[in-house]
Amino acid sequence: MSEESTPGFDALEKQFGSVALALREGDATQLEALSSQLQQMTVDFARTMRDFPSTSATSFTQLRRVKALGQGFQVLRESLLRRQALVDHALQVVVPATRSATYSSSSAGHYGAGPKASGEFQSFLA
């Protein structure tokens, strides 16, 4: 993998930048489309790197670019999670019915529900 023969990695970095820009602008449609393309490009790049002989010399610049992109993916993931939390909170403000109460009486589960008579005992004296 020489400096000149990195068109796949260059395209991956460019696509990553496009996804980050779409996230920053808040364009959900574009973010979805670009993210799926980025995922496929990442899989293709990983497959290329797996087939690349490990004995070949990679330059310090290339390793630094790969590490920077890996760290960028972590930042992008955190940003997506923050955006998701913001959207969920806004949805709960606008549409209160989407809010799920922790101790709701409407839940049909056993946990948090009040005691129910089993009908086993006719009377109980304490």
Quick description:
By secondary structure, the protein is mainly alpha-helical.
Q: What is the rounded Rg?
A: 26 Å
Overall mean confidence score, pLDDT: 79
- The portion of residues forming beta strands comes to under 5%
Termini separation comes to 82 Å
Unreliable spans: none
Question: Can you tag this structure with a few keywords?
Answer:
126 residues, elongated
Helix-strand blueprint:
Elements: H1 7-25, H2 28-51, H3 60-94
Helix pairs in contact: 1-2, 1-3
Could you characterize the architecture of this molecule?
- With 126 residues, this protein is mainly α.
- Helix content is 62%, strand content 0%.
- The protein is built from 3 helices and no strands.
- The chain has helices at 7-25, 28-51, 60-94.
- Helix 1 packs antiparallel against helix 2 and helix 1 (7-25) packs parallel to helix 3 (60-94).
- The protein starts with 6 loop residues before the first helix and ends in a 32-residue tail after the last helix.
- The model has no long low-confidence stretch (mean pLDDT 79).
